[in-house]
Specification:
By secondary structure, this protein is mainly β. It has helices at about 1-15, 145; strands spanning about 25-40, 55-65, 75-90, 95-110, 120-130, 135-140, 160-170, 175-190, 200-215. Strands 1-2-3-4-5-7-8-9 form an 8-stranded antiparallel beta barrel. Strand 2 (about 55-65) and strand 3 (about 75-90) form a beta hairpin.
Amino acid sequence: MRKIKSLIVLVLILISGTINCQTVEIGTKIGTTSSSIDDSDFFNDKPSLGKKLWSINYGFHTIYYFKNPKETKTGAIVFEFNNRKLGVRSESSNATYEIDSKSIEVVYRMCAKPNKVGRFFLDVGLGVNFLKESNIYKGSVEPTIAFEKLSQPLLIKNKDYKLVLGFGHDFIINKKLVTYFQLDACGGFTNINKNAGSYINTYFSLNTGLRYTLEFNNK
């Protein structure tokens, strides 16, 4: 509950900073995700339970710029909603853990000075994954056999919290339309498992999409 309250306070603070925004962009996001379920002990020599799980992700986002990003470097607040499948593949069989996830992310974006075709940007933020708890294991053998590090099958919680990092480049198509390419890296910092062992979701995501631009003349 304390973590949820902290996230709400952070969102309210960030929203207050967007009241005098110069430019708003609304758009789509689609890409591919490479995810893993890792031991929360970062000093483990091989933290992952198995191989990466690949899947398609999609969603939408709204970006509030403090200044016009087509004219100068600026900061921005990004609100995102994403659908993706998180999990891990067994190294010894065709078994998988596949967790349907719907996420909300609040990110601070730093946009570089515009170049001839667009602008580079860097993202830092927080998010929450809402996880489907049932029917996550697919395999013909017991989970503890498919994933040797497990002493008990995973019993997933209904949500986890994560750190969000991103880097990319926007390409200006015309006055109203922008496309982009973006690489995201996300790591959970809360345990997703109710059974023995502490595990976190981690993933990389390569994305693209199209955004529509709204400009305001705030003084």
